[in-house]
Design goal:
Dimeric_a/b-barrel; alpha+beta; Alpha-Beta Plaits; DUF1330 domain-containing protein; 38% helix; 5 helices; 4 strands; DUF1330
Length: 123
């Protein structure tokens, strides 16, 4: 199962940059006992997010799925606003940040990290 972005994922992320801020959707499914490791990662990542100008918008546990096929529910959901894709890439490329990413990787069975693009305002 996918947990960490690969080089081709990052290249596509860069190439499809429409400019401006983005909200990153994070959906995670924990390994058995993975919540503790993920909590440690979340604590460690916060200073790097703030340095990058990111704003955590929402974090919470998954609950009742009203519409989902079997296996499509998630343990946790997070939304984080970054000022730009470049700011996100600078954060994850920081060698100090890289020192604790193993905590996230070890915690997760599966993940989705999806950049979102805001819809144009309706007239």
């Amino acid at each position: 199962m996918a947990v960490d972005p690969q080089g081709t994922d990052i290249q596509k992320f860069i190439q499809e940059d429409p400019g401006g801020p983005l909200v990153m959707l994070n959906l995670v499914r924990f390994k058995e006992g993975g919540r503790a490791s993920f909590a440690e990662y979340a604590t460690a990542v916060m200073p790097f997010m703030l340095k990058a100008g990111a704003q955590p918008l929402y974090a919470g546990d998954g609950s009742t799925a009203l519409v989902a096929d079997p296996g499509q529910t998630w343990d946790a959901v997070m939304l984080v606003r970054y000022p730009s894709r470049a700011a996100f890439l600078e954060m994850v490329g920081d060698p100090e940040y890289q020192r604790f990413t193993h905590l996230r990787t070890a915690a997760l069975h599966e993940a989705v990290m999806q950049a979102t693009i805001p819809w144009a305002a309706s007239p």
